[in-house]
Amino acid sequence: MDQADRNNDFNQNDASAKGELRWSERSPSSPQRPKLIDIRFGVDLVVTRFYVVLMVGKDRRDQNRPYAVKGWTKLGNTLAAVLLLLGANLAISGFIVLSLYLLKSMLGINLMPGHFAEYLKPLLQ
Amino acid sequence: MAFPQKKSDSLSWIGSGIYFVLLWLTACSLGMGLTAYVVSPLIWLGTLGVTLLLAWAGSAAIAPAMVWLLALMWIATMTHALPQPMQIHNVIAQVWAASLLDLWVRGGLVILMLAFARRALKPLRLRPAAIFAFTVGLSWSALGTGVCMYSLMSATHQV
User: Fold this and answer.
1) d(CA B92, CA B74)
2) Which residues does A contribute to its contact with B (CB < 8 Å)?
């Protein structure tokens, strides 16, 4: 840790202890530490374009936001996050189940008589 | 468009050439695979649309393209789809699963190669519209050639 980092840590800890540091008051030149996981990519859906960011790291964030999120915005945010997570979960599960099923069939392992689709048909009807 | 002046430029030109030859061959084999499975015109339209999206948006289109491929594979599995020369009663499950997995891998490779085609085109310093036209032209010509080759091969075997 260099001197600038130490000073920055000291200033943040000192200010947080006093409850003074706010998001908007942070210096824009404060150094960004590398995260444990830092994945960023875009998703283009023709009509619109989203970006997805997944970060995991030590929590050194200030808990105060520069703006309050409440009411319909909070509900919309929660709904969008749930739908996004469900969609991603469904796609990943679909990928794993289908690839394992095809690999199993390719290796000649027969766990149940008949075809996979025959067991799903009653569920879909 | 810039011509190579240094040795490193020539090497990157060769690398790009190899990349696009591989992309063309993979897309051609995908075209053959789709023709073998006698996919509906709707699926063909969707696949061509996905290639347009990949050529336009690059790596940002990987997620929707992979979801499209996954949906196709699920449809093929649920309907017990088989390539044209195989008959449903005399084909063993191993061959059926292997042929579907093979088509899945080919589709995935084409998606990834098309998504990163822009990086391979960097040495040519083309404008975005030219990159789009080149990528679409290359992938559609490869798919079309695959369709023609499979049709010719199956016609020859029938005779």
Assistant:
1) 19
2) 41-46, 49, 91, 94-95, 98-99, 101-108, 110, 115-117, 120
Exposure string over A62-90, b if 16+ CB within 10 A, otherwise e: eeeeeeeeeeeeeeeeeeeeeeeeeeeee
Q: How far apart are CA A93 and CA A86, in angstroms?
A: 10
Q: What is the pTM of this model?
A: 0.77
Using the Cβ of B88 and the Cβ atoms of chain A, whether some distance falls under 8 Å is answered with no
* Torsions phi, psi for B54 (to 5 deg): -65, -40
**Residue type for B103, please?**
L
Tens-place pLDDT, residues B98-153: 999 999 999 999 999 999 998 888 877 888 899 999 999 999 999 999 999 998 88
Q: What is the DSSP string of A68-123?
A: ---THHHHHHHHHHHHHHHHHHHHHHHHHHHHHHHHHHHTT--SSSS-HHHHHHHH
Q: Which two tokens stand for residue B154?
A: 């199956």
With tokens 């929707």, the residue in question is B64
Q: Is the CB of residue B102 less than 8 Å away from at least one CB of chain A?
A: no
**B80 touches A at CB < 8 Å:** yes
The partner residues of A51 in beta bridges, in order of sequence, read A42
Q: What is the DSSP string of B60-108?
A: GGHHHHHHHHHHHHHHHHHTT---TTS-SSS--HHHHHHHHHHHHHHHH
Enter the ipTM.
0.79
